Structure formats: C-alpha cells, structure tokens
Amino acid sequence: MTTTQIKGGTVVTAADRFAADLYIRDGVVIGLGQDLNLHADTVIDATGCLLLPGGVDPHVHLDFPSLSTTTADDSNSGTAAAAQGGTTTIINFAMQQYGEPLPAALQRSVDQAEGQAVIDYGFHVVVRDLGADRIRGIDEIVESGASSIKLFMAYPGELMVDDGTLLIAMERMAAAGGLTMVHAENGSAIDVLARRALAQGHTSPQWHGRTRPTLLEAEAVHRATVLAELVGSPTYFVHISCAEAAAEVAQAKAKGLPIFAETCPHYLTLDNSVYDGDSFEVAKYVMTPPLREPHHQDRLWHSIRRADLDVISTDHCPFCMVGQKDAGRDNFLDIPNGVGGVEHRLLLLFDRGVRAGRISLERLVAITSTNPAKLFGLHPRKGSLMVGADADVVVLDPTGRTRLSVTSSPSRVDYSIYEGWTVGGAIRYVLSRGKVVVDNGVVGDHRGHGRFVARGATATPN
Ligand code: URP
Ligand code: ZN
Ligand code: ZN
Ligand code: ZN
C-alpha cells in the first residue's frame, strides 16, 4: 500500500476552486481537504500551485496510418508527450480495414498498444464500411469498452462514408448508449476543388487550405446534425475550425439536440497567414480542416465560453517534414494531413485562455478534462478530483514560464508549429493513478504503466 499527500495547493474543478491537500492511496484519491491528518509515505509540496484533474484528450492519432505512411508517434512516444503536457488519459483510434468486423479492428489496436503507454488510454473505432453483418459489431465494441465510433465525411476513397452509412451507424450507436464522432467536411466537393486546382498547376501546400473552404465544413456539420436529429443520436463534431461551423453547432444545441463539439489549440492560436509565400515549409501547417482567417478565433473563444464548444482536444497527428510530409512536394494531396501538439494543450490554453482573460480556470478544467471524461464514458473515474476517482493529477505552477519546443518533447516528430513560443505557467508534476510520471517537468520512462480503460455510456456535460 503506497500513500501520497500533495500539500499546500489549490484544487480546481469544473465548478470552483478551494485550498486543499490531496491524499492518495493505491492510485485512488482518498481524501481532499485541510488538516485531515492522514498518513502519507510521500509528500509533494504544491505550495502556490494549482491542482487540476489530469487532462483527457479524446482526439489523438498514434500508430495511425495515412496515405502511405504512419504517424511519427506510437503509443509510447505519444503518451509520454501527452503526460509531459498534463494529459493523463488519451483516446486513440482503431482503424477498421474495409470489410473487417469492428471488434477485430479494436482488438488489433488493443494488442498493438499493450505494454507501451505511459498513461491510460482507450480507443474509438473508425468505421469505414458497415455491411449488414458488421452493424452488430457496434454493440460488441461498446460492450468491450470502446463506447464511441468515428466516421469521416471527408477523404473520399480513403475514409469517407456516405450519408446512409452515417445514419445507420448513428442510429445503432445511440441505441447502444455510445457517442458518434464526425469529421464534418464535404469530401466530394473538396475533391472537385482540389483536382481542379491541381489541373491548373497549383501543386504547392498553400492549395490545401484554399481548396477546403469554411462553407464546406459548415454544410457537413448541418447535414450530420439533421441525420443525428432524425435518429436521436448523441453526436460529437471533431475539430470545429470556423465561425460558420460553430454557428451550426450552436443552432443544433439551441434546438435541444444532443450535439457536442470540440475545437483544437491550433485554430485558437494560429491563422491562415502561415500559408503565405511559396515555400514548402508551409506543409508544416497542412492539417484538416486548415487554419482559417484571424476573425474565426474570436468566434471560437466565444463558443467555448458559451458552452457551444464542449471540449478542446489536440488532434495530435504528427508527421515529420523529412521523409513524410515531403512526399507531397509535387502534389499537395500527397502531404499526410496533421500536426503534433498533444504536449502543449494545457499550457497553451492556460496562457492564451486563462491568463489572457478569455476563459476562467474552471472552464479550462471543464474543456480539457471533465467534459471529455463525461462525454466519452470515463467519469467519475477520470475528469474530476474527488474521493474515489483515479489519482490523475496535474500540479501547475501559475507563476512559472515554459518554452515550447520539439527538442524538449518526447514526441518523435521533427518540428513544432509552436516552436520557440514562451507561455505563462509550468507543469511541475503529473501523477497517473498516483504514480509520479512527470517530476519537475520531466517525464520519466514509464512505458507500460498506462492501461486500457474500458469506457461506459456517454453522459452530458454541465
Ligand atoms: O489533419 C488532420 N486532422 N489529420 C488527422 C485526421 C483527421 O482528420 O482527424
Ligand atoms: Zn478529422
Ligand atoms: Zn444550418
Ligand atoms: Zn484527427
């Protein structure tokens, strides 16, 4: 039996904050308060620091295939990076091969991650096709603890499903008590724009952004909310990037529909001016949806404050410039889409959100931990610091400063879109089920500490 006390900090929840010591026994929170007089073998001094529930990042691609390559991070390096940034649970993707039963896809990913992760993890199953004999697989994966699926309305020929498949999947998932995630962009229309650009000789990465307009994101959000309404499906839109799409989510919520959505730090902190010029360096910013004009950021922050956006995930999907992104030097469609950043979510949002006066500390906890834990069936084990919860804790020093750089990250990608940025706040310690996995800002070698977490039914955040 091991016991730990985290002493002298201020606990922050999604609702409020209070001075309290935190007591941990065998990986679980057993006491929270002042002058509790419980015994502890180890004492961590958190004087002047904030104690936050460990982050839950529900949108992370590790060991993820794209075009002819695979993400630079696997379950070990990606979860080490996540831990360094204060995330103690990630949800990765298990990719269904065409024709494959969904439980087989899940099992393959579970086997591949076994013994690798530093922090706890789960999987969403990416559904690519749903023949009549495969639909029942949705019930089976939910029973196995993967209570969410993801479908793509983009990437024709690779991942895109038609509206009928989306409807059937939503209907079955709703009945099973799980959550359907949707990548909403009109893939067929984007395909026309992209091929037309290429035919006109526009092969450079700048054209990735120019051929994925905001209207085609908003249209897809609208279409999927109609399908979700028809079958009463709790539905979660990933990576909302623009005002028009955020407005569609707001409208659906105003109707009382169980529609939820996330955005990502890059849409809040970067804009499409990075696509100016004709250097191939622009490929660093080739992610989907692309970065938008600066004015979209205000609308996204507004939606976060109003709870029209429920979660901020990273969509960590790293590909190296050398040997991966450079496959698209002559054709922007050959650049694998995605950027890293799983390690920077908390401090970027603490700095640009809380310190900049855009959101409260409590809202920060809600959107990075409590809300994703509830939506993805992890609460109350994850997402709140309370008695009986897993002792996943971040000790954040609000007076510290941190320089973001790929060189100090366990991620294996070869660049960062935040390279050299300095942010207010520093992560001193991160505990995963009571174990210190980040000590004075440095992540140790804890391969295999992380476990697969079986998730339950989706619950609505406050
Ligand atoms: O560019 C991105 N986001 N790559 C990952 C795949 C996806 O669309 O989420
Ligand atoms: Zn996506
Ligand atoms: Zn609409
Ligand atoms: Zn993604």
Structure description:
- By secondary structure, the protein is an alpha/beta fold.
- The protein folds into 2 domains: 109 residues, Urease, subunit C, domain 1, CATH 2.30.40; 323 residues, Metal-dependent hydrolases (TIM Barrel, Alpha-Beta Barrel), CATH 3.20.20.
- Helix content is 29%, strand content 23%.
- It has 12 helices and 19 strands.
- The strands form 3 sheets. Strands 1, 2, 3, 4, 5, 16, 17, 18 and 19 form a 9-stranded mixed β-sheet that branches. It has an 8-stranded parallel β-sheet with strand order 6-9-10-11-12-13-14-15.
- Helix 4 crosses helix 7 and helix 7 packs parallel to helix 8.
- The longest helix has 18 residues.
- The protein is globular and about 70 Å long.
- The relative contact order is 0.19.
- The model has no long low-confidence stretch (mean pLDDT 97).
- One zinc ion (ZN) binds next to loops.
- InterPro entries: Amidohydro-rel, Hydantoinase/dihydroPyrase, Metal-dep_hydrolase_composite, Metal_Hydrolase, Metallo-dep_Hydrolases_sf.
